[in-house]
């Protein structure tokens, strides 16, 4: 069965931070892979999820880097509720903006356009670069309504280790080591920091079946839907059973 028409009219979102392990919205399916031209950095401040106004946490954003590769998780949007939810979570509360890039399956021979959420130095929460030791210290000391900043970092690192073992992310993995060291040195309770909760991660086992990168029809469809509907995209594809995150 040829699924190309099925995927041409679909909308995909790429997650590289907490979306990897907690999307929080219904989706049709998800798969792992990567995007190019960026690196993942803990340079964005956060006062609404993993920190407070008085003590902002640090969360991931994407920084342009010509040879960079960022591994994460792509979600095929199921209905018209996902983008308003993400608009509030990522943009209104988090300070991110949206753009479109190309997502590659982990084997690298299939690609699709995806929406990504990026924080830049023009938003009020931006913290920017700092010595990794200082970033690790800040993460280990901050928490917010969604939980401790340590949970955000370690769940992201664990997701990459488990589902994308081929990924190399020096920034993320160095912060993981430094934060774990601080937890041990300060006799902090890891179970408490992690929230003592489990997340069921549902991933697509099969290759996504879409057109190659040099066919820009899909990209144009996604961009047009974004402009025309302003985060109210309604899938034109017949629905299947919803897949949602189980907590």
From TrEMBL:
EC number(s) per entry: 4.3.2.7
Catalytic activity: glutathione = L-cysteinylglycine + 5-oxo-L-proline
Listed CDD domains: GGCT_like (cd06661)
A GO term for molecular function: glutathione specific gamma-glutamylcyclotransferase activity
Classification via InterPro entries: ChaC, GGCT-like, GGCT-like_sf
Pfam families referenced in this protein's UniProt entry, alphabetically: ChaC
Any one of the GO BP annotations: glutathione catabolic process
GO cellular component terms, A-Z: cytoplasm
Broadest EC class assigned to this enzyme: lyase
Coiled coil start-end: none
Keyword vocabulary terms for this entry: Lyase
Origin: domain of life: Eukaryota
Matches recorded under PANTHER family: CATION TRANSPORT PROTEIN CHAC-RELATED, GLUTATHIONE-SPECIFIC GAMMA-GLUTAMYLCYCLOTRANSFERASE 1
Family classification: Belongs to the gamma-glutamylcyclotransferase family. ChaC subfamily.
Protein name (Swiss-Prot/TrEMBL): glutathione-specific gamma-glutamylcyclotransferase
Organism per entry: Habropoda laboriosa
